UniProtKB/TrEMBL annotation, chain A:
It catalyses: DNA(n) + a 2'-deoxyribonucleoside 5'-triphosphate = DNA(n+1) + diphosphate; Exonucleolytic cleavage in the 3'- to 5'-direction to yield nucleoside 5'-phosphates. Heterodimer of a large subunit and a small subunit. The gene is polC. NCBIfam families: polC, PRK04023.1. Possesses two activities: a DNA synthesis (polymerase) and an exonucleolytic activity that degrades single-stranded DNA in the 3'- to 5'-direction. Has a template-primer preference which is characteristic of a replicative DNA polymerase. Residues 713-1010 form the DNA polymerase II large subunit DP2 catalytic domain. Residues 283-302 are annotated as: Disordered. Belongs to the archaeal DNA polymerase II family. This is DNA polymerase II large subunit.
TrEMBL record, chain B:
GO terms for molecular function: DNA binding; DNA-directed DNA polymerase activity; single-stranded DNA 3'-5' DNA exonuclease activity. Transmembrane segments: none annotated. It comes from Methanobrevibacter olleyae. It catalyses: Exonucleolytic cleavage in the 3'- to 5'-direction to yield nucleoside 5'-phosphates; DNA(n) + a 2'-deoxyribonucleoside 5'-triphosphate = DNA(n+1) + diphosphate. It holds the Pfam family DNA_pol_E_B. Keywords: DNA replication, DNA-binding, DNA-directed DNA polymerase, Exonuclease, Hydrolase, Multifunctional enzyme, Nuclease, Nucleotidyltransferase, Transferase. The lineage of its organism: Archaea, Methanobacteriati, Methanobacteriota, Methanomada group, Methanobacteria. GO terms for biological process: DNA catabolic process; DNA strand elongation involved in DNA replication. Its EC number is 2.7.7.7, 3.1.11.1. This is DNA polymerase II small subunit. The keyword Flavoprotein does not apply. Residues 364-503 form the DNA polymerase alpha/delta/epsilon subunit B domain.
Amino acid sequence: MDFEMDYFERLESETHKLYEIANEARSKGFDVELETEIPLAKDLAERVEGLVGPKGIAKRIKELEKDMSREEVAFEIAAEIASQESNETGTKLEAQRQAFADQGLRTALAILTEGVVAAPLEGISGVKIKSNADGTKYVAVYFAGPIRSAGGTAAALSVLLGDKIRVATGLDRFKPTDDEIERYVEEVELYESEVTNLQYSPTPEEVRFAARSIPVEVSGEPTDQIEVSHRDLPRVETNNIRGGALLAMVEGVIQKSKKILKIAHTLELDSWEFLAEYAKGIGSSKEEENSSESDFEESSQEIDDNIIDKEELFEHSKYAHDIIGGRPVLGYPSEKGGFRLRYGRSRNTGLATMGVHPATMELLEFLAVGTQLKIERPGKGNCVVPVDSIEGPTVKLKSGEVRRLDSIADAREVKNKVAEILFLGDMLVAFGEFLRNNQLMLGACWCEEWWIEAIRNSDKYKSFDLEEKEEFNLNSLETKKLTVEEAFKITEEFNVPLHPEYTYYYKDISIKDLVNLSEWLNTKRDYLENGYNNREDLELDLSYQKRILEVIGLCHRLVDGKVIIDKDHAYSLLKTIGEDYSKYLADDYYNMSVVDIINENIDFEIKDKAPCYIGTRVGRPEKSKERLMRPAPHVLFPIGNNGGNRRLISEAAKKKKIKVEFARRECINEECRLSSFQSICPHCGSPTVIGKAGQKDINLAHIFSKASNNIGVRKVDEVKGVIGLISEDKLPEPLEKGILRAKNGVFTFKEGTIRHDSTDLPLTHFIPSEIGVTVPKLLKMGYDKDCYGQDIVSEDQIIELKVQDIVVSDNCGEYLVGVANFVDDLLERYYGMERFYNVKDKYDLIGHLIAGLAPHTSAGVLGRIVGFTKALGCYAHPYFHSAKRRNCDSDEDSVLLLLDALINFSKSYLPSTRGGSMDAPLVLSTRIDPEEIDDESHNLDIFERFPLEFFERSQESLKPSDMLDLVDNVEMHLGTDRQYHDLMFSHHTSSIHAGPKVCLYKRLGSMKEKVEAQIHLAELIRAVDQRRVVEGVLSSHFLPDIMGNSRAFSKQKVRCPKCGTKYRRMPLTGKCKCGGDLILSVSKGSVVKYLEISQNLVNRYPVSHYLEQRLEIQEFGINSLFESDKSKQSSLDVFFGK
Amino acid sequence: MFAEILIKFARKGIILSPEAYNIIKNSENPINLSSDIILKLKSGNYPKDIVPVDLKTLETIEGISLNIKSANKIMKQAPQDKQKTIEKKQTPQEKTEIKKPKTIEKKQTPQEDIKVKNPAYAIEHVVKIEDTAVSEDAISKYKRNLTESKVNFDKFKVLKDTSNKSYTSGEIGNLIEYFQNRYKKLSGILSKRPELRTWQKINEITDNQTDLNLIVMITEIRTTKNGHYLIEVEDETGSIPILVSKDNDELIRATKNLMKDEVIGIIAQKRQGNELAICQNIIDPGVPRMPRKEVDFATVFTSDIHIGSVTFLEEAFVKFTRWLNGDFGNEQQREMANNVKYMIVGGDIVDGIGVYPNQDKELAIKDITAQYDEAARLLGDIRSDIKIIITPGNHDASRVAEPQPAVPEKYAKSLYQLNNAEFLSNPSIVSLDGLEVLIYHGRGIDDMVMGSNDFSHERNDLVMKEFLNKRHLAPLYGERTPLASELEDHLVIDRVPDVLHTGHVHINTYKNYKGIHCINSGTFQTQTEFQKIYNIVPTPAEVPIIDVGGNYKQLKFID
């Protein structure tokens, strides 16, 4: 424990150092406030106080936390705040009661969402106390769109909190009118048809029932421009759709009814019994409940029954439906040759990230480190990282040779010679992924680690004494390459199934294939006596049975019409495959698995090498890039349209005076009253207050040159500003900051900070040499032992990552060097202080602090740079990502250099619009407590090896929770010392960034090339049906795009490029109000962009006639829109000589 | 010729058995039958490579009529059908107009809403066609291909057809011209109204002027915090806000029916120096009362047949065509059929392909050409002396943006081969021997229903009335109805018709508004999945007819 305390205290003391520097800079009065605006929060209670307040609540939360659960605390706090005493009377009292209710709900919701998510600020637009028709008062909770970020349960709990407040303050229940109830019904339908689908589509009866029964009013601000027909209801303020309210009611209360009812019981809220009805079914409600689980059970049953209806399986596999141009399908659902499921976790997987062999990544080119895959199961998506201790792909070359690729070098060598990808290789999936998604277990594949456990549990091994065991060295056997004779010897001696290397994918062939294969082999039955003993390879005459070898994944060559199998595999094959299976062709055996048939005829055992395959398709590409607004400004300083398209300050400064809207600060000193941008009056030194925003004339040239002189930087032409300020106060940033940002090549984001975004990737262990950190630096940072408890002396040891240390991408590192230099310049030239970072290259950043921030949250998480990765992603401890409430299935979060954020962030720059405070560092949480972060990370597997029983029981389609006794995960160590260390992994990987760094999707320029590559891959991969891919791209991407855009073209708005004004419909004047010419907002280009490529596909591939005609009709429509019949006629006239 | 047929089959990889060959050879029109067979085989669920065809196969190919013996197969089923009449006495003079002010009809509660779905007045016109089959020998002799039509169609005229007259090239300038043309056409109509004789342009308004007299296009309609309406209007010289006070009930009622982008006249008062003008009167372009036209023939109006959909009511449609041929119904009804000279199909004759996601799951025929082939087969059974006018709808193979050009021959070749069919655009205007019919599929109805509380799909007759008052078929831009930026706005009703015929919503309605027959011709499709979700109850297989003398009736071909 001391060790960790040391670590956290070290981080905290360094953080405090940065706060001191930032506060000193701020104290000069050049900024909006005199202190840094990011409060520190050590734990959940402090975060809540920092995020939503009220002041002092952290103490009360901590008191309650001692003997209450998190939920109980939240509800207690809500009641306490809402029912506190007030000195006011009359209308003031009412206003205050309402304010208390509002505060209570927000604070409680913040507690429920770990004080990280923006929902308590942005997802609740207010709480009101309103009147029923009978004069009684009730509570109304107003939701806004960002309630989405809280998740369904928390959204529903917000409604429950409203009820708690209602009870605590002695108010009556909400009594809706029939119109109000029907309004909800209509709104839900309208939302689904006009806006987007809800996760759960309730029946009208279900909505009606909820609307009638929920004891508080679930209302909200309008989120979409669509109007309902139940208009002008006196108690509903808007006629537009209330998206937030619908999310809270449908995806919250209705969808999570079971869970909410349980919580209502424990909290003793008695108006929620009605929720029990949802489980029974309301009205004619169809049982479409939470599809994933039941869908899954169905499809897994099909597999077990060995009767796989491919079409049905396809229907159930969402991932395979929406095929997008340029994002290849890598395997159809459970199709043979797709990814083989392998259980385990490597040091860079878990939390929805899964391992793939780097040779597979190299071969496919569409998989880079961090590329997202949509997957058949478990879950919906993941992120791919390289793990080289699992099996690579098996390919058939144009020469007829079948090879397994074990390294990137192998893959590079054969890449251009591949005729077919027979197997994609393994996908390493942690047990925790099944647990998290609550999906039934799938059978483990027959692999080395299982074989090892089989030996370990054999009677013979158990009878070994210590010395014998050491001599036998079981663990080294796992990676050792065995000869076939050694393999058979172990099988015989230890009575274990045959080694996986010499076991092939027999289950994938039919009984008929088996008969045929055996007949073919019968031509060389004498090989074992003759050829093998002479160390010769097996030669077979080329015959159609070669395909069977390909399908079982047995490597061979093809030379001069002979199929050549190397002697070890030939031996194994001939030993395994008997001479006559013809009796199994009888009907009685049709349902028997080939593996069982083979086993019936041999005196040893073989195992099923691949009980299941996982279908996948490529999703979002990996990313690591600086955050840029469009266009990207260096400074939040308004220059209107005077800077041209590029918003150049220097351009705008050429005009004598420009008129822009902004606010200044005014000196409070009656005698001075000077206007400035500073929080301390530059003239008299008195404090200043924000003035009113308005249109003002400024002499930009003067301000600009004054700023340049002020910091002693000459002539920076490329400083970019913004058109206007979108914040409430409309206070501009000092121009000096912009000049220095431009000088260092960095850009600002909406609230004054500089961001770099990367795909989230998990990491629990690192090797110093791979991330570019040296031993002395590591020691300095407090690392002293490797993961096996040895002292750190070399850069090749495996070291467990501390929970707040992160490995950023190379380009993030380089960008942060610019940020560090900017901060140093700012300190030195603007604030007149010492430089702090003094970095020359990115390696100097190691050990420096950053803040990690997820877009849907408002709390930064403190982190420390420990090294760099070549991957386009940010490797960090799973806890770190979970602290941001993220998993790693291709989410991307930003990294801020801490001192930059502390000095330059200001709340007053935040947009005044809804959602404006999301993605802003409103508090900084300094310490990760695994109990206070998203519980997804609690499912992380942390053990080195699975017991034999795990592999065996995995074949039984059990619930993952029934297997918890066989595994070890974070949850089992929460609250103990071990929650921070000794989190091991089961599969090693030699590099966390092997394989491609940029997926092919990003490297190819045009959609045409991307689609070509996608279809080429479909042709190569055995588990993919090329025709289906072509049809999929057409029917789910290109055709809807073409149709949507031609429809949009004929309904489009017009826009003024000069001033940016949009018009719903072309004005009759034909001009913009500003006098400028208007342009189309949907161009011909966007309508026809996929037309040619679609025609191309239709011409080259045998797609269904249906699709072909659909495309033709679209083409007719498009031509009719863009080609005048006059020109067609005149060209015909010319043709006919008229 | 027979070698030709064999080669034709061989090229398509079809092998004929001798029996099959004989059947084809002995049919009335071997070449046509061969084409039919080939088409069915190639588009249907038959193997893609080599197809052996014997007698059995021929019999199982759906939709092929082996003319030799099965031509009146359908007739044979008929006599078993129940016979029942619910014919009502005709009220010669329509109850002209149901003059219930809309405001009273306004939905108060959802329950009332449902009642409106089956407007009681409509029942009066409905005539159930008797399931009386005609004896074999009485079956009409004038089927297509049997007798050349001797009917004189000299007085049939196409007054407006925009097919092959799309002059837009999709540029910004076209969009400007399009709306300016709408304004020009409608201001031309409005400027003839006496109230607007002194109308002026917005930029001519002087500071001290108090009375405004404007012809404007509506830009935006908003309600203010105090419950007033604020209408922003424009002409080609500028824009101005107009306030409609909530205290003026009559004006508020009128305002609620206003659509963005329609052109109206406004009389308003402005206080000196105040930018805001207060509305005094809103003037629609409106229509004059049309004189009743007596005609000596009957016209049937259909639309939304949706051939190719699994929900197409083929049986009812065949009853309808048989009735037209005089093979069905009681004597009086067959007499009525005998008078039919024109049949209009106002869009969605087929279900189309790819109109909405996963449509293929609801299609019986998944090939657009085959859908039109099937349409040709069904319409081809109608006696050739009825002229059939076919316009496209949103399900047809045309462009989505209105005006839609006629369905191209490329897809509807077989339909084009019917010598009595005419293909026109949507919208289009025809003169049926002097009776002018404006045919419009009806997407604009969606906009109106969405845009105002006072309209519903069920009462689309009220929407048609509003089309006439506004003199535009789809005034609202940018919502449901895609509009092509043609140089002329063809959706303006610049010529007042005798009949306004719409479809699209699948609900029959009828209204006589100022002497104009407003007809929605319903559908031949049962409730679709989409309609189920939106609780739209269609009125299938009811065919409107304007009878000799100009009376409206509605014929029902389903129980």
